């Protein structure tokens, strides 16, 4: 599955109300580490049908980023039942990212 884009307007319906866990990549186009981690998340999304992967551009969607106190990017957060349950900050290797997100 491809990593879908979410926005401030769709975050509640796409992430907070999801019946399955959602991994959210908080990123920005100018962020080099964000661009490095993107293919890793794409690869992970292809192998996990039980988890949804999305990304939110913090420059275009500042409200959601502020609501979750995102101060460094990339920040990758796991949401379950509308709550952040796990989080990873920085462009981590796939094995570390998987471990920190419970995947």
From TrEMBL:
Which Gene3D superfamilies does the entry mention?
Glutaredoxin (3.40.30.10)
Q: Where is the active site?
A: 31 (nucleophile), 34 (nucleophile)
From which domain of life does this come?
Bacteria
Q: Where is this site: Contributes to redox potential value?
A: 32-33
State the UniProt keywords alphabetically: Disulfide bond, Electron transport, Redox-active center, Transport
List GO BP terms, alphabetically. Answer: cell redox homeostasis
Q: Give the GO cellular component terms, alphabetically.
A: cytosol
User: Site Deprotonates C-terminal active site Cys: which residues?
Assistant: 25
Span of domain Thioredoxin: 1-103
Homology family: Belongs to the thioredoxin family.
Q: What is this protein called?
A: Thioredoxin
From the broadest rank down, the organism's phylogenetic lineage runs: Bacteria, Bacillati, Actinomycetota, Rubrobacteria, Rubrobacterales
């Amino acid at each position: 599955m491809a990593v879908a884009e979410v926005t401030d307007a769709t975050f509640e319906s796409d992430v907070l109300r999801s019946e399955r866990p959602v991994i959210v990549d908080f990123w920005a186009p100018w962020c080099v580490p964000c661009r490095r981690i993107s293919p890793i998340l794409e690869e992970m999304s292809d192998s996990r049908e039980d988890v949804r992967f999305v990304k939110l551009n913090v420059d275009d969607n500042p409200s959601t980023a502020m609501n979750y106190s995102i101060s460094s990017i990339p920040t990758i957060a796991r949401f379950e039942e509308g709550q952040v349950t796990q989080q990873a900050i920085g462009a981590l290797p796939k094995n570390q990212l998987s471990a920190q997100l419970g995947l």
